[in-house]
Design a protein that fits this description.
By secondary structure, the chain is mainly beta. About 10% of the residues lie in helices and about 45% in strands.
Length: about 350
């Protein structure tokens, strides 16, 4: 039956009103993120990304002792006499330097056997620190003020850098170095209480620091690491602090120091960073490993928290490796300690 305009039944108008209301509600829900793109708080639409919990697994909550490589007579590397820097290769090879004996050793992660690196024709040869550059191993020689290059098997390749030619006006006394993903290099020099920043062509880009106790000054810079954002951190042993710098080498601030009543550092030395920017600091003065987050706030500190095998005595360097592991070279114990990094 067809009704003339103006003579529709009342229930027709009721149905139309219900349909219009439902359409309006659906449109409102779609615009306000009813599909999961937002949450209403106090009548205000909030992006879903701001209500999600922070990404898990980036905050260090604990170090768990795994094992140690002791200075035992039947060990391939025996005797260890001057334990120094350590590093991990990309596939997990653990590398450490014996500065006094002029030796560098690597642990093959597949066969779990130790092997010795070739020695360069440089005397005196005192390997002090080691970093990994892709599939090459770089060793800092404090005896000849040089950086030597090896392959992952420990075969000698060449002398990459004569540090004396970087700054001919100064005879450097090197203590540590670091390399970033762009090929820039940092070298700590205690003869001038400075850090040399080299570009990717290993040309001197700038000098950082000078002798003293003020900001942007050093008294025995002993450890360096680049951060994920391209900035870097220097351990200043004499001033009991860390100094942080931006990517361009400009001073940004200190952590610790003699005037900090909560300063945890006694003699901070080796330092390394993980992919999230957390810092791991070997404190030789009080036998502890300090962990700071990417904003340089203390997270945890370990010392005599473990049994006899897991307690550091005089740690000199730290290295973060694949699989969330941390290696610590302990000169007083002549041992390499390995910990699991626990994140949450």
């Amino acid at each position: 039956m067809v009704h003339p305009i103006g003579h529709f039944p009342k229930r027709f108008f009721f149905v139309m009103l219900v349909l219009i209301a439902a359409s309006t509600l659906a449109l409102f829900v779609g615009c306000s993120g009813g599909s999961g793109s937002g949450v209403s708080q106090g009548g205000e639409s909030v992006p879903a990304s701001s209500t999600k919990p922070p990404r898990p697994g980036t905050t260090v909550v604990q170090l768990e002792f795994l094992l140690s490589y002791e200075n035992e007579r039947n060990a391939f590397y025996f005797p260890i006499e001057g334990l120094a820097g350590c590093a991990f290769g990309p596939e997990g090879t653990l590398i450490f330097c014996d500065e006094k004996r002029g030796k560098v050793y690597g642990l093959d992660p597949g066969t779990l056997t130790w092997y010795e690196f070739d020695s360069p024709n440089s005397r005196p040869y005192r390997p002090l620190d080691v970093v990994v550059d892709g599939f090459k191993i770089l060793v800092l020689d404090s005896g000849g003020n040089s950086v030597f290059r090896y392959d992952l098997s420990g075969a000698y390749l060449d002398r990459l850098l004569d540090i004396r030619q970087v700054d001919p006006s100064n005879i450097p006394q090197v203590t540590a170095f670091s390399l970033d993903r762009d090929g820039r290099m940092l070298i700590a020099d205690v003869s001038q209480q400075q850090v040399l920043l080299l570009d990717a062509f290993l040309q001197l880009q700038m000098r950082v620091g000078m002798p003293g106790t003020l900001d942007d000054q050093f008294t025995d810079p002993s450890g360096i690491t680049f951060l994920p954002d391209g900035g870097f951190v220097v351990t200043d042993r004499g001033n009991r602090r860390l100094c942080r710098y931006g990517r361009l080498g400009f001073f940004e601030g200190t952590i610790g120091g003699d005037f900090d009543v909560d300063n945890p550092f006694i003699l901070p030395q080796g330092v390394d960073s993980d992919e999230y920017g957390n810092l791991f600091v070997a404190d030789q003065g009080n036998g502890r490993i300090h962990v700071l987050d990417r904003r340089f706030r203390p997270l945890t500190s370990i010392g005599d928290d473990f049994g006899l095998r897991g307690t550091p005595t005089a740690p000199v360097d730290v290295a973060v490796g694949p699989g969330d592991v941390l290696a610590v070279t302990d000169r007083a114990r002549s041992a390499i300690l390995v910990y699991r990094i626990i994140y949450e």
